Amino acid sequence: MQTPTYLAAELRLPTNWLDYTILGIYFVVVLGIGFAARRSVKTSLDFFLSGRSLPAWVTGLAFVAANLGATEILGMAANSAQYGVYTTHWYWIGAIPAMVFLGLVMMPFYYGSKVRSVPEFLLLRFDKASHLLSSALFAVAAILIAGVNLYALAIVVEALLGWPEWVAIVVAGFFVLAYITLGGLSSAIYNEVLQFFVILAGLIPITILGLKKVGGWDGLSDSLSQSRGSDFMTAWGGTGIGSDNPLGANWLTIVLGLGFVLSFGYWTTNFAEVQRALSAKNLSAAQRTPLIAAFPKIFIVFVVMIPGLVAAVLVPKIGTPGSDLQYNDAIPYLMQQLLPNGVLGIAVTGLLAAFMAGMAANISSFNTVFTTDIWQKYVKKDRPDEYYVRFGRLITVIGVLASIGTAFLASSFSNIMSYLQTLFSFFNVPMFVVFIIGMFWKRASMKSGFWGLIAGTTAAMVNYFVIYKQGIIDIPSDQGANFVSAIAGFVAGAVVMVAVSLFTAPKPVSELQGLVYGTTSPGMSEAPAKGDDAWYRKPALLGWGAVVLAAACYIPFSF
């Protein structure tokens, strides 16, 4: 998918003092939350995991807000302007089932084992080689993705408000640095809760006014069906094997590549997300975190998809050589055309909040992994707890500075959306196959985790850079290639893990308690607290409710 990393120069917004006042108030509140959270930081557990004390509704909203970054807002609206209703696959197939699986199946292992990070689980289940490799890969990826969010923010602010690119990068980086350094994860999480509502306050008016502009849903559907074909307004039209469609994918690669491998790889092993659940006050709250997040996730697709569809009606040639507007101009264009001052300030604030939430999620997970999984485990062991809190703050500063550097590095890539999806297929998918086999197969040996990571990453890269880029196999689009790379990485990692396990020694069963399905640990057998048995506090009911609701939303768009 071609999503250029620039916006049209003519999208400058008519902002005034009212809009900047709203933006200023937001930044003051962000810093205020950081100072307030600082008082609760007394130990390294407080700084990195909020002392495992937060209620499920807070961690649930932070969980979904952490994902509302650059690709979610601009990227998915661009996706909709180019591909239409196919965008629903990234939500109802590519998110909800994996979030439910994380809550019902994987959180008992994560939370019950008392790990402080996702890579630390690999240390307990496999060996130091798997742990160190996964920690290093995640730390690098977190900084790269944080930089992409910063750069995407900068190009939006430059086009919409006229700020120089470097000013936007430095200002946003400073505010993220300030509130994470002050209050640690608690500050990031409470700001993400605020950002969740600010983001929706910006997107909902765009969606409502956009629909009104094109004659409601019926007018939108009729216009696009006539100009783009009937499949443009359906989720599955034209996805038969051998059929041609703009997405360049068929139902098999959508279900397996996106719905299973990429989706489960991202939502179940990406520590930037899982960290929010690990900060919950008990196992029940940790399980409910991704399940609570799944309900707003079901409906967020509408406030990012509909603006993209509206832009495709209002600018019929959007994204083509005959238009000055690219696909990722969809939301900024509607902001310029539809929103009055005041509401415009809220929308700009929501857009900045989205980018800051995405960056903060990666920075807070980076400082945890680097401090606890690399520095404390392999560099400076057995230091006082206060030392690791101070180092966590220091590495946060370094992480933000590195992100500012990678933000400028990101400007050399012509396709941010595809770039991030490719990274996920390279790194998240191999991590997922190692986790899923390690959690469900006791015989998986200590050495198999390391070689599974190597094989999965290598296979995904070979498929993308050699088989796809060199034209050995014709895959119509980058997105289709990412789906295939994800499948290749999963299969290769699984095959190598099984082969290595057959020739190397497994861990003793006594060391697998609470780490493999069928074994238990004290945390996993935790009884619910008195008064904690209401239906909305039961993970299984919440999980199945989310799946049923997502399926019900899918039906009107399926055919």
Automatic annotation (TrEMBL):
UniProt keyword list: Membrane, Transmembrane, Transmembrane helix
Statement: the UniProt record of this protein carries the keyword Nucleotide-binding: no
Identification of the protein by name: Na+/galactose cotransporter
Main location: membrane
Transmembrane segments annotated in the record for this chain: 20-37, 57-78, 90-111, 132-154, 166-186, 193-211, 249-269, 290-315, 343-370, 391-413, 419-441, 448-468, 480-503, 540-557
Keyword Transit peptide in record: no
Family membership: Belongs to the sodium:solute symporter (SSF) (TC 2.A.21) family.
Highest taxon, organism lineage: Bacteria
A Pfam family annotated for this UniProt entry: SSF
Subcellular location: Membrane
InterPro entries referenced in this protein's UniProt entry, alphabetically: Na/Glc_symporter_sf (IPR038377), Na/solute_symporter (IPR001734)
Bilayer topology annotation: Multi-pass membrane protein
Organism listed in the record: Streptomyces parvulus
GO CC, alphabetical: plasma membrane
Single GO MF annotation: D-glucose:sodium symporter activity
